[in-house]
Amino acid sequence: MMFRRGLILFLPRLVGLLVVACCSMSIVYMLACTPKGDNQQLALPRVHSPTVKEGYEAILQEREEQQRNYIISLKKQIAQLKAELQGRTEQLKNMQNQYPDSLDIQLDHSKPEKTQANLLAFLRSQVDKAEVHSGVKLSTEYAAVPFESFTLQKVYQLETGLTRHPEEKPVRKDKRDELIEVIELAVGSLNKPDGVSKAKPRVYTASDFVEGIYRTEKNKGTLYELTFKGDAKHQFKKIVLFRPFGPVMKVKNENVNMADTLINVIVPLAKRASKFRQFMQNFREMGIQQDGRIHLTVVYFGKEQMNEVKSILENTSKSANFKNFTFIQLNEEFSRGKGLDVGARFWKGNNVVLFFCDVDIYFTAEFLNSCRLNTQPGKKVFYPILFSQYNPSIIYGHHDSIPSLEQQLIIKKETGFWRDFGFGMTCQYRSDFINIGGFDLDIKGWGGEDVHLYRKYLHSNLMVIRTPVRGLFHLWHEKQCLDELTPEQYKMCMQSKAMNEASHGQLGMLVFKQEIETHLHRQKLSSKKT
C-alpha cells in the first residue's frame, strides 16, 4: 500500500523531469544547428560564437517590433470599425428621433447592428424591385416611366411645370441640389482607388461629365445613369446610381375639428351684375345650404349696376334666411388687390379663414373643406390650382345645344386645363394676411397683385400648399384686355385670353376647318361615284 502511494507521488515528478529534459535538448539543438539558405546564412549565431548574446537580443528585438507593428495595425482597424459603427448608430438614432413611429422598421437602440442590417436589407430590396438591372413587362405604352436628361448646365424635361420650358436651368433648389449631389458622388466614385492597378490613377472632375439621365419610380426610388469622358476619344465611363426611398413613416396623427371654422369669401366687383347673379346661385347652394359656415364680403367699385347687385344680394338673404354678408362700396377705379385688401381688413371678428374669390368662380362644398384643412394660422396658406373651362361654344359647337353648367364642369383635357399660372384664388387666415403686409395697393387694374402676394408668402416661413383641386372651377367668359393696361399687364391678359378659348387640337380644327370640309366633300363625291 505504501509502495503504491509512493509510486503515485513519484510519477508526476518523473513526467516533469522528462518534459524539462526534452525542452533542454530542443533548445540545445536549435542553438547548435544553423539552417542554411541559398548563398546566405540566417542571422542565428552558433552556440560557441562570441556574439551569441547580442545576436539573440537582436532577433528578439526585431520580432518584438514586428509583433508591435502588427498589433498597432489591428488596433487601428478596430478603431476605424468602431468609429464607423458608432457613426451609423448615431444616424439610426437621429432617424428614430425624427420619426419615432416608423410603420415598417422599428429602430432598437439596444441592437444597432440588427437595425442597420434590416435597414440595409430593405434598401437593397428597393433596388431589386425597381427597374434597374432588367426591364419589366408593362401593360401599355403609357405605363412606361420616362427618363429626363441633364448636363452641367440644363435639364431637359417632359414635366415642364410652371415654367413651360422643355429645357431649363434647374431653378428649383431641391432639384439643383439633387443633381449636384449625384454628380459629386459619381466623381468621388470614379476617383476611388480600385486596389488593383499600380499605375497612377486619373483624377476625374465635374468637367468630365458628359450627360446623365434619371427617372423616379414613386414607391421605389430614383435611378441615375451618368456618363463621363474616358481615357481615349471614343471611350466613356458610366456610373449607375440609385437613391432608394425609405419606408413610409408616420409623422403625425391628429383629430381636426372644423365645425366652428368660418370662411369669409371676399369678392371684389365692378358692374357684371349678370355674372354676380350666377355666382350667388352657386354660393347659395354650396355655401349656404350645404356648408353653412360661411360669410360673404362684396367690395363694389363705382355705382353703375350697384343697385342691381345689392338687390340680388338682399333677395338671396331673404329667401335663404342668410345674414352673414357685408357690402362695401368704394367710389374709385376698380382694383382687385385694393378690393380684397379692404374686405380682409374690414373684418372685426375673431381670426377667420379668408377665401379670395372672383365672380366667375364656381366652387363646391368639398372645396370649402379643403380650404379649411389646408390652412393653419402661422403655419400654412393654401393656393389651389383651379380647373379653367374652355369656351363652351367651341367645345360643344357640334352639339345641338350647350349642356347645363353643372354638366360642363368635367375635368377632361377637351373641356379645360389646370390654371397653374394663376394665383388669385387663395385661402389663408386673416392674421397671416395682415402680418405679411397684404396686397401691393399701387397695382391698378388687372393682374399682378396676386403674384406679389404669393411671392411674399414664399419668402416667409409659412408653408405654401399648392395643389390641383377638383372642386374649384374658373367659368369661361370673354376676356377684354383694356388699352390702359401696362405693357406687361396687357401681355399677360392676352396670353390668358388665348389659353382660355380651347385646346391646341380644338383650335387646330378651327384653323384647318376649310381643308377638313374640302376633304369631306371630296370623300362624299368619291363614294357617290362608286
TrEMBL record:
It comes from the Eukaryota. Its EC number is 2.4.1.-. The keyword Metal-binding applies. It is found in: Golgi apparatus, Golgi stack membrane. SUPFAM superfamilies: Nucleotide-diphospho-sugar transferases (SSF53448). GO terms for molecular function: glucuronosyl-N-acetylgalactosaminyl-proteoglycan 4-beta-N-acetylgalactosaminyltransferase activity; glucuronylgalactosylproteoglycan 4-beta-N-acetylgalactosaminyltransferase activity; metal ion binding. Keywords: Coiled coil, Glycoprotein, Golgi apparatus, Membrane, Metal-binding, Signal-anchor, Transferase, Transmembrane, Transmembrane helix. It catalyses: 3-O-(beta-D-GlcA-(1->3)-beta-D-Gal-(1->3)-beta-D-Gal-(1->4)-beta-D-Xyl)-L-seryl-[protein] + UDP-N-acetyl-alpha-D-galactosamine = 3-O-(beta-D-GalNAc-(1->4)-beta-D-GlcA-(1->3)-beta-D-Gal-(1->3)-beta-D-Gal-(1->4)-beta-D-Xyl)-L-seryl-[protein] + UDP + H(+). One of its GO terms (biological process) is chondroitin sulfate proteoglycan biosynthetic process. Residues 64-98 form a coiled coil. The chain crosses the membrane at residues 7-32. It holds the Pfam family CHGN. It is an enzyme of class 2 (transferase). It is a single-pass type II membrane protein. One of its GO terms (cellular component) is Golgi cisterna membrane. Belongs to the chondroitin N-acetylgalactosaminyltransferase family. This is Hexosyltransferase. The lineage of its organism: Eukaryota, Metazoa, Chordata, Craniata, Vertebrata.
